[in-house]
Amino acid sequence: MTTDPTLDPAAARQPLDAVALARLVDHTLLKPEATRADVEALIAEGIRLGVYSVCISPSFLPVEVPVGIDGAPDLQVATVCGFPSGKHHSDVKAAEAARAVRDGAHEVDMVIDVGAAKEGRFADVEADVRAVRDAAPAPTVLKVIIESAALTDDEIVAVCRAAEAAGADFVKTSTGFHPAGGASVHAVRLMAQTVGGRLGVKASGGIRSAADALAMVEAGATRLGLSGTAAVLAGVTADGDY
Q1: Half-sphere exposure of 174 (CA within 13 A, CB side)
Q2: Cα–Cα distance between 158 and 195 in angstroms, integer?
Q3: CA 219 – CA 217 distance, rounded (Å)
């Protein structure tokens, strides 16, 4: 059975070898051209690497993952909601999340309406997150993608507070599809300071090396979204250096 690393956020910031770092990874495949064969290969690779979860598009659900002797999955399954633009009605996001859970997702990564945040409509952001939270209640893990590269520091703080107020489990930097960019150490640190260990922080988007990954963890990330997981883990030494 898996253990969510965000139960002890401080532990994620201890020196990490490749095995420990892998337990923080959502091994991700969200390319539009992905096939079922690609997803099967992703799952097999995720098992081999010892990652925490795989993150796939909702149309691929349900998928088969191995289970332990207690019947619990050894590999968590995450999916996305309102992806990648966030420009979906809240009831559509909620329906998408509810269907994903019925189809076997353990975790849902939803995208906020970034334009609402840019306009200062943080109550609307909170309501959007709450709609998805209500449709996918605990124990489903809800991560809120804020597209931090497109926001000011004040907007990042306000959106993280809205996500927390709405009952999210994580705030997450990026979809990886926004032209403004992906995760940054500065954004991760600010997000971690804002949620203060009450929520997890997922860094995702543009993390392509061991140095990138370890810098995000040092800044406060408790989960990492990686598509090039094998290459990242291969760059980590036994003492958590690179």
Answers
A1: 24
A2: 11
A3: 5
What is the distance, to the nearest Å, from the Cα of residue 39 to the centroid of all Cα atoms in its chain?
A: 17
H/E run at residue 127: helix 122-135
The residue among 112, 103, 110, 108 whose CA lies nearest residue 150 is 112
What does pTM read for this prediction? Answer: 0.93
Q: What's the CATH class of domain 16-234?
A: alpha beta
Cα-flanking dihedrals φ and ψ of residue 2, to 5°?
A: -80, 155
CA torsion, points 57, 59, 60, 65, in degrees to nearest 10?
A: 80
Residue-wise pLDDT tens digits, 80-139: 999 999 999 999 999 999 999 999 999 999 999 999 999 999 999 999 999 999 999 999
Q: Which residues are catalytic?
A: 109, 172, 202
Q: Is the pLDDT of residue 4 over 80?
A: no
Pairing of strands 25-29, 223-226: parallel
Q: In this structure, are residues 12 and 196 in contact, taking their beta carbons and an 8 Å threshold? A: no
Give the pLDDT confidence score for residue 69 in this predicted structure.
Answer: 77
Spell out the domain ranges in the chain. 16-234
Return the C-alpha torsion angle 232, 234, 239, 242, nearest 10.
Answer: -60
Give 193-222 as a DSSP string.
Answer: HHHTTSSEEEEESS--SHHHHHHHHHHT-S
**What are the Cα distances from residue 26, in Å, to 53, 78, 206?**
5, 8, 14
